[in-house]
Amino acid sequence: GQSLEQPSEVTAVEGAIVQINCTYQTSGFYGLSWYQQHDGGAPTFLSYNALDGLEETGRFSSFLSRSDSYGYLLLQELQMKDSASYFCAGRNTGFQKLVFGTGTRLLVSP
Amino acid sequence: SAVISQKPSRDICQRGTSLTIQCQVDSQVTMMFWYRQQPGQSLTLIATANQGSEATYESGFVIDKFPISRPNLTFSTLTVSNLSPEDSSIYLCSVPGLAGAFETQYFGPGTRLLVL
């Protein structure tokens, strides 16, 4: 089966850079997605790494290394509105479904 | 992007009763997903609902407890039966993203269920 592990909580201050890690154990992995969920809200898609390397979308970047079974989400120029939970998610080859990571709660302080 | 609505947005139910959650999408989709998110936890897939066939349930979830209907390509319902306090969770439906991409799912706003 798949399992994707994340730190439970990360804290940072406004304007800083924070990295949220995701390590997984599975074989035949398609790639890694990242979702953001504010308290009381629905998860929203942030980024997807189909291949190894870095993907950049504005202040957010995501990285994947298949050889290390590892990825991360990098948030730059942190803003208070970035306080939310962040989930990595993966899809195993041959399966038409996502498995979500354990989730990381990001707290941004002034 | 797909726009998804869910009803009810929240409910408080007594144990032993059932709650049916509706999920409406603004476009036709082949697959719809139902997730459970227990308080402070991650998302766990309950089942995949395909139009015209039986839903596919994940390990630990059974049809008697979570019956699903999928009458057309824009609508699905999830019923949570014989409620117990352990069923208190957020229930979310989702659909695949552009070109049916499973990695980029769109989620409904969720149904917050509290069982007393």
Question: How many strand segments of chain B?
Answer: 11
Largest sheet of chain A: 6 strands, mixed
- Low-confidence stretches of chain B are none
How far the N terminus sits from the C terminus of chain B, by CA atoms, comes to 37 Å
Tell me, what's the shape of chain A? Answer: globular
* Residues in helix, % of chain B: under 10%
Structural category of chain B: mainly beta
Percentage beta strand of chain B: over 45%
**C-alpha-based Rg of chain B, rounded:** 13 Å
Main features:
heterodimer, A: 110 residues, mainly beta, 6-stranded mixed β-sheet, 5-stranded antiparallel β-sheet, 11 strands, 59% strand, B: 116 residues, 7-stranded mixed β-sheet, 4-stranded antiparallel β-sheet, globular
In short:
The complex is a heterodimer of chains A (110) and B (116). With 110 residues, chain A is mainly beta.
General description of the model:
- The complex is a heterodimer of chains A (110) and B (116).
- Chain A contains no helices and eleven strands.
- Chain A has 110 residues and is mostly beta strands.
- In chain A, strands 2, 4, 5, 9, 10 and 11 form a six-stranded mixed sheet that branches. A five-stranded antiparallel sheet of chain A has the order 1-3-8-7-6, with no helix packed on it.
- Chain B is mainly β and 116 residues long.
- Chain B is globular and about 40 Å long.
- In chain B, 38% of the residues are buried.
- Chain B starts with a strand and ends with a strand.
- Chain B has no helices and eleven strands.
